[in-house]
Amino acid sequence: MSLLGLYNVLNTYLIIGAVLFGMGIYGMVTRRTLIGMLIAAELILAGSSVNFMAFNRFTAPDPVTGQVFTLFIMAIAAAEAAIGLSIIIAVYGHFKSIDAEDTAQLKG
Question: I want to staple 20 with a disulfide (CB 3.0 to 4.6 A). Which of 29, 39, 47, 62 is the partner?
Fold first, then answer.
């Protein structure tokens, strides 16, 4: 199998999606700043989108199903980024830091 023939194999896309998802989980566990955690969450959503599109292309009888799921994931990612950034800006305004451990002092 040549390198150019790998685009037509389900396992290639599943590996790419798993790598993105794994990098996102690793980032969520190891990052201390809220911005790093937000980027890691975006990687998790991107990995799941790649998997939905791969299963859509290779196994789904209806070609629209995976695309609709991916559009929903993109909408959730956009909303999460907007709300997350507004929370991060509010935390920075209060604590002058975006370290996740500083938010333990929040009351509510």
Answer: 47
pTM for the model stands at 0.83
- DSSP codes joined into one string, 19-83: HHHHHHHHHHHH--BHHHHHHHHHHHHHHHHHHHHHHHHHT-SSTTHHHHHHHHHHHHHHHHHHH
Q: List the CATH number of the domain containing 7.
A: 1.10.287.3510
Is residue 103 domain-resident? no
Q: Which domain holds residue 90?
A: 3-95
The count of structural domains within the chain is: 1
Q: What is the pLDDT of residues 39-72, one digit of tens each?
A: 999 999 999 999 989 999 888 888 788 889 899 9
